[in-house]
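FIELD: query
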Amino acid sequence: PHYTTTHVTNSAANNSCAKNDLFKYPLYSTVFSIVFVVGLITNVVAIYIFSCSLKMRNETTTYMINLVVSDLLFVFTLPLRVFYFINRNWPFGRTFCKLSVSLFYTNMYGSMLFLTCISVDRFLAIVHPFRSRTLRTKRNAKIVCIAVWVLVLSGSIPTGFLLETTSNSTKENATFCFENFSSKQWKSHLSKVVIFIETVGFLIPLLLNVFCSIMVLQTLRRPQTISRGGNMNKKKILRMIIVHLSIFCFCFIPYNVNLVFYALVRTKILGGCDVESVVRTIYPIALCIAVSNCCFDPIVYYFTSETIQNSFKRKSQVNNYYDSKFSEVLQSEATSNLQCSLSHIKAKVFHRESSV
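FIELD: result
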């Protein structure tokens, strides 16, 4: 994919096919700028809600808080990427380049795994509500989140930090970041990395999301479930599943499917300039779609977290309750004052009558 830092030399690429992906530089700089602004605002609002406004938390919100952290870590690196894609020069040093690459994969595969955790948690809550009570605890959710972070970081940090740099030749005295590895590096290292991240980070989460969604839908179709939960609750869960799966598939399937073909092209398993041209053209577009998951994740927070919506409802109900009580107090005070005034006037009148 698009890794690491290198000082440009005059060596030409070994590939004889003409590269047609120069459009990626304005595309990346535009899309990443939009994602930075929108992703920063929406995720800061989300973390404010989770930290300050949301008093009641459960295992679902635990997964979502970790998803917010993953998104924000990546969003903070986007200005550096935008600067690079505009200037085509990386002046921030090799460490920041590799860190930015690592955070990209941390965000992408961390997002997929945390979304999968939310899907599995919903599956357990709806399909096995009684048997899953001992499993669905905040303590177990924290343990799962730690395991996800360990898994994601163990794959993303070596990808960004432990691989060799490559050379590229477009302008002198420029430092390149996020550019392609050589075919030799693809054959020796990256093909194995792709197999690992595609299996653990994409294929297994995709299958789990689809399986959990199908099982929840089948459960909702049972008459006893509908009578117990009501049609409105059923519609809400259906909407959550549709939004969840749509975002997962839209953001992650194009990039990960194209990454497989990209790896096959770079390792020379797939040959032909036409194939390489198609793969190189699709790759930047798929990457931009994958990066946009930072903007779409807050939609998942809203539709998935029944706790958040119930929290807002409880707040409004409490406010309405206090408003009604306050008006009752005012009315009672006004009534009592009026009664006091009338009794005072009455006493005075009777006093005068008695004195006459």
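FIELD: remark
The two ends are 107 Å apart (CA to CA).
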